[in-house]
Amino acid sequence: MEAELALPPFPIELAYLWSAFMRLRRRSAGGLNGPEPVTLQAIETLSRLSCLRFAPWEIKLIEALDDLYLVSVSKPSGDTGSGKEG
Q1: What letter does residue 82 receive in the DSSP assignment?
Q2: Any idea where the domains of the chain sit in the sequence?
């Protein structure tokens, strides 16, 4: 079980993108169906107001992180995603 929970080390070189994603996510509105995706407008606004200039691959990574977040919060409580019933 311990090996199943082991994660690779956090890539410190990408900490600035994780920080940007967390800033965006904390300020993202929720709708009646739960959290809404981070918008490109929000990314552009953060970029402009914080003087961060994101390359296209960085924007794609922020979007991918947000997609993973949205999938994780849409799972029913107690669903591990393993597909195994216990």
Answers
A1: S
A2: 36-74
